[in-house]
Amino acid sequence: MKVAGERGCGEKARRHSAIFTMIFMVGGCRNPISSEVHVALSPEPFVVSTKIEAKPDSNSAALEPNAMMGRGLFEQRSSNSCLFCHGGNGKGGLVNTGVDLSRPTTWKVYLALGGKAAYQSDRKTFVARMKIATTALIRDGAILHNAQFKEPWFNWNAPSMTPYKNQMLGLGGSASQHWMSLFEDVGMTPTIAAEAAWIHLGMLDSQGILAPRGK
Ligand code: HEC
């Protein structure tokens, strides 16, 4: 694979008529003029090719969460990144999280939504709610989420359910904050970042519970 890291920082991104190709890459530099965006602190060189339709008369383009964006965020290599606490495969990180991100049936959200019976009776609704609750947790972190997530379908009193441990910082970790700040000027928001993380969680899922792979 030709990696983006082999290119110079000043190289202009290739442009198709109305399409920007955004490249998320290693290098710790970025060129604000071109549409290349370089991610510092990525674990290894990789290219995210996201086709973003350029809006006429505007420099801003709609930023769509995608799998490689989610991976770039998740795998930041400094303290309090998702990777730091959870490990690359969603287990075995540096914090004893007590959760295996590759097994969504073991997550608290699975309990709070009614567990296996609820999942089996309406898988689509269950997973849609799982996404809403989990992206909110990732975006807000445990402390806020415990206090403010009040959807009627999320049962904080479900059997074996307990509030989320405060260590679950989600995007509140400094590494994630830094990563988001790199993309602020192309429209990155905590919600987009949390949805990208959700897509990455779908890639880690060994049980086939979350969204189909790559979506
Ligand atoms: C400082 C450490 C830390 C960071 C940073 C962190 N987490 Fe967590 N995370 C935890 C802990 C601890 C738990 C277990 C919480 C519990 O079970 O009460 C957890 C739980 C989770 C869960 C399971 C939710 C559930 O319903 O059980 C998901 C999904 C998750 N984290 C995703 C992420 C993502 C994505 C990121 C990065 C954006 C992230 N975490 C960053 C510590 C962290």
Structure description:
Helix 4 (115-121) crosses helix 5. The chain is globular. Strands 1, 2, 3 and 4 form a 4-stranded mixed sheet that branches. The chain contains 7 helices and 4 strands. The model is unreliable at 1-57 (pLDDT under 50). It has helices spanning 67-74, 82-86, 108-112, 115-121, 123-148, 174-182, 190-204, and strands at residues 15-16, 19-25, 37-38, 48-53. With 215 residues, the protein is an alpha+beta fold.
The share of residues in helices is 25-40%
Most strands sheet: 4 strands, mixed
Task: Report the structural category.
Answer: alpha+beta
Give the number of helices.
7
Mean of pLDDT: 78
How many domains make up the 3D coordinates? 2
Rg value: 18 Å
Low-confidence runs: 1-57
**Ligands, ions, cofactors:** heme C
Count of distinct strands:
4
Q: Strand fraction band? A: 5-15%
Order of helices and strands: EEEEHHHHHHH
* Shape estimate: globular
Instruction: Please give the oligomerization state of what you see.
Output: single chain
N- and C-termini, Cα separation: 22 Å
Give a short summary of the structure.
35% of the residues lie in helices and 8% in strands. The protein is an alpha+beta fold and 215 residues long.
Please name the defining characteristics of this protein:
binds heme C, 215 residues, single chain, 4-stranded mixed sheet, alpha+beta, 2 domains, disordered N terminus
Which helices and strands appear, and what pairs or packs with what?
Elements: E1 15-16, E2 19-25, E3 37-38, E4 48-53, H1 67-74, H2 82-86, H3 108-112, H4 115-121, H5 123-148, H6 174-182, H7 190-204
Parallel strand pairs: 2-3
Antiparallel strand pairs: 1-2, 2-4
The protein binds heme C (HEC).
